[in-house]
Amino acid sequence: MKKMFTFVLTMALLVALMSTMGCQTKEVTSAKVYISQNNWDKAIEQLEQAVQLYPNDVEARYLLGEGYGNKGLWEKMNEMFNQANALAPTFSTQIKNTREKYWVGMFNQGVAKVNAKEGETADLEGAAKFFNDAILIDPSHIESYKNLAYTHLRSNNLPGAIKAYQDYLAINPKEISILNEVTRLYLENKEYVKAQETAKTVISVDAANIDAISNLAMAYDLDGQNAMAIQTYETALAKNPEDQDLIFNLARLNYLNKEYDKAIAMFQKVITLSPEDYDANLNVGNAYLTMADDLRKTLVEKENAKQAVTEEDVAKLKEFYRSAIPFLEKAIAIKGDNSAVYYNLGVAYVNVGEATKGAEFFTKAEEMRK
């Protein structure tokens, strides 16, 4: 037993000594000959045997990684490179350079596929494959994720773009511009809860970030959380009072909440900033008509209850109709393709006592419907 133990110990020391002295196995020697002949298939066969037979052979793993890289087997390449680096840093510089070489190659081919020459069509599917390969080769290069996301956006693949940005954020979790872009994509993809969560992440880092606050307001808005949306729109507007989209959306929510005076004031602010805004003009006109309709119902109820309808009541009713007219006319001047707007304008004119003019608009609305 003692002699056997001595023999085993001696052999272990011999293996360790060979490793220390840099002795090369016959499999690695054969592989190098094949590599010199650019016969990577045969070289890989020998190197795969070497890594099975010699668990501590750093060079075999490094060379096998090179072989897998030559074949475009990026995951296997990285597995061998990682094993080699874990055993010893002997080939760390070569491994770094190899990864960089292949990453640059894949990344540049992806860019070339996106940026098609004049007269050619961009190969977005091919570009995405190259950028995915670049990520496999070296996940630390964040440019790959950005370009992959852009490629997916060009091909209207919103989930793919979101996934690429999420992978980017796994490396740089606090990059505000990317977080805001992901929020925007969630909104576009109708994932409103995720949009809210992502916008809140930005606000936790930068409480004054207007894009994040605006996105959060929009996420609440589209999710049907009107009260939270109004509160957040107001916060956003306090920081950016001239933002027409924010003003318009807050006006719209006030309209939906039947706060017509607030809605009209805000829509008119949009019109002041952008006089040709069709929707703002139309909504002011419709708000006045809605107020008139509500008041008319109230007055009818008064009459039915044998209550007096005053001259002031009638004058107020006519004023609502009169106020609607210039905004509805402006809407038609901007875009006169909606028969309902002509009809509503006819209603307004009839109720201010201009029946002939009202009839003209009713006729126009009927012609358009036909």
Q: Count of helical segments?
A: 19
Q: What kind of oligomer do you see?
A: single chain
Query: Structural class per helix/strand content?
Result: mainly alpha
Strand proportion, as a percent range, falls in under 5%
How many beta strands in the DSSP annotation? 0
Low-confidence segments, given as residue ranges, are: 1-22
What's the average pLDDT? 92
Topology order in helix (H) and strand (E) letters: HHHHHHHHHHHHHHHHHHH
End-to-end gap:
108 Å
Topology:
Blueprint: H1 2-21, H2 26-36, H3 40-53, H4 58-70, H5 74-87, H6 92-114, H7 124-137, H8 142-154, H9 158-171, H10 176-188, H11 192-205, H12 210-222, H13 226-239, H14 244-256, H15 260-273, H16 278-304, H17 311-334, H18 339-351, H19 355-369
Fold and architecture overview:
Helix 4 packs antiparallel against helix 5. This protein has helices at 2-21, 26-36, 40-53, 58-70, 74-87, 92-114, 124-137, 142-154, 158-171, 176-188, 192-205, 210-222, 226-239, 244-256, 260-273, 278-304, 311-334, 339-351, 355-369. It contains 19 helices and no strands. The model is unreliable at 1-22 (pLDDT under 50).
At a glance:
Helix content is 80%, strand content 0%. The chain has 19 helices and no strands.
Features:
mainly alpha, single chain, disordered N terminus, 80% helix, 370 residues, 19 helices
